[in-house]
Amino acid sequence: MITVDEIKRVLPHRYPMLLVDRVTELVPGERARGLKAVTCNEPWYEGMPDSASEEDYHYPWTVLIESWCHVAGVLVAWDRPNPDVREGKAMLLGGITDAEFHRPVVPGDVVEHHVRLARQVGETFVFEGESLVGKETVLTIGRLTMTMRPASDLDVPPVTASPVTGPTGPTGPTGPTDLPVAAPSVPEPPVPDPL
Question: Residue 82's pLDDT is what?
């Protein structure tokens, strides 16, 4: 059993975005299970009127997926914790495919996330799994890709635009050219295809 104090030593997430309360199973390099208790005291319910129905309290799907990802993050980072993303390696979400939502999650539900590591290529991880409330599946994830990158690679100075050169020189035929110019693109480092 991995409790919230241990989770905070592994992940950089903090309130209100630490979205896993406990990890109940961890098999490094294979799978993990974690719990998220949904309550009406979470920030996305702030300002909810007294007349709101249960349907209005539907837990945001994006936040449910993020909670599932936190269990995946514990699975990846358990043996190399990094609670400060400004140093070491940072987890980056690569993408999600085949996510299906089966029923709304509402306050009072305890969600159990099941995460399985389907494949690893270098520092890129491919997961699959589901989330349940009791025995009822509320979310399935067909594939989620996460990668680890050195934090120093993410700290790139901003790119500034260079002056525009007109057709006959820096001023063009009718005076200075001061049209906005898109900054040159910075090539991304190559990422191996995980499949």
Answer: 75
Tell me the CA distances in angstroms from 182 to 48, 154, 172, 188, one per residue in order: 42, 21, 19, 17
Give 89-103 pLDDT, tens digit per residue: 888 999 999 999 999
Give 26's pLDDT tier (boundaries 50, 70, 90): very high
In degrees and rounded to multiples of 5, residue 125 shows phi and psi of -120, 140
Burial string for 133-142 (b: 16+ CB within 10 Å, else e) reads beeeebbbbe
125 CB neighbour count, 10 Å cutoff:
23
- Residue type at 106 in one-letter notation: V
What does the alpha-carbon distance between residue 181 and residue 138 come to, in Å, rounded to a whole number?
46
Q: For residue 54, count other CB atoms closer than 10 A to its CB.
A: 10
**Catalytic residue numbers?**
58
Task: Show the tokens assigned to 70.
Answer: 């936190």
* Other residues' Cβ atoms within 10 Å of the Cβ of residue 187: 6
**Per-residue pLDDT band at 158 (split at 50, 70, 90):** low
